[in-house]
Amino acid sequence: MSRARSFLVPFSLAAGAAAAFTAWWIRAGRANRAAYASNTEDLLWQAIRQLNVGAESRYVTVNGLDLHTVIAGPSDGPLAVLLHGFPENWYTWRNQITFLANAGYRVVVPDQRGYNLSDKPQGVHNYRVEALAGDIKELIHTFGRDTAIMVGHDWGGVVAWHLAMHHPEVVEKLVVMNAPHPATYSREIRENPAQQQKSWYVGFFQIPLLPEELLGHDPIESANLFFRKGAINQNAFSSFEIHVMATALAQPDALTSMLNWYRAAVRYQASFENVCPIEAPTLLIWAEEDRALGKSLTYGLEPWVKHLHIHYIPHCGHWVQNEAAAEVNAQLLAFMQS
């Protein structure tokens, strides 16, 4: 008995100390998120003013959800819808909003469901790609249009691919930036060990609670890790821009909702297996030094995308619309006006 007690006592003390530290650490992280989220309105208006293009912030109701949306450009201009990815928000398109609005386009940039200031329905099933694409289809109609030029980066590109395949009637032209087509992603995950290693985080994000607590403990550090440290051109992100991105990460329930996009992709894989050829003219912009998505994902797309042009950008990382804004804008405008 004495031997058992001599083992159990220090073990119990260590376990109690670990539990106490974990509880303190979680409370500290939640306090950090609340502190960053408390100045959301001020940061939003500062960010919109800095666009210098007369943009407005509005909530648009689609499929029973309110999507926070930034709108700029003439109301009668051609409609361009810009879709962000993970862990971004509308502000990732800051360099394109002003440029396209000044070029005469009606630019609509939503925080997609689960992100930043938009509604965050509970449950993984609410983040199936069909639901995400359905939001954007209805968003186009809310602005009184039948079609739009779709521009998507990362997960926003995945939604754009899905729209062009399954709702082609609403896609006038398609622009995708560093977002894999489901056919090539499936191929590379099966056959390419390098892409399998790059995609390790998809498995990690399936773990309940732990990813959101780790990523949400210090929103500024997480934003720095994702955007500045993850970039090739780290000067693409100012301290103010990092602060805006961190504040979006800190919104209540945002991290769980954002991660649910990945969880739904794994649980509802059949959503990505029905691949149809895309008829819309398509521009694929690809930064060659993306640390998560290899260049091989762009190979062999011709059977699936009939009118495809690929523009590669060397010495550029995943955040291509920020890291190479001038080149991206030039490619965008040339394609949109062609």
Any chance you could write out the topology, listing elements then pairs?
Layout: H1 2-37, H2 40-49, E1 56-62, E2 65-72, E3 79-83, H3 94-102, E4 106-110, H4 129-142, E5 148-153, H5 155-166, E6 171-177, H6 182-191, H7 193-198, H8 200-204, H9 210-216, H10 219-228, H11 239-249, H12 254-267, E7 282-287, E8 308-313, H13 320-323, H14 325-337
Parallel strand pairs: 3-4, 3-5, 5-6, 6-7, 7-8
Antiparallel strand pairs: 1-2, 2-4
CATH topology of the largest domain: Rossmann fold
Poorly predicted sequence stretches spanning 5 or more consecutive residues: none
Distance between the termini: 84 Å
Oligomer: single chain
Question: In one word, what is the shape?
Answer: globular
- At CATH level 2, the architecture of the largest domain is 3-Layer(aba) Sandwich
Task: Based on the model shown, name its key terms.
alpha/beta; 338 residues; Rossmann fold; 14 helices; 2 domains
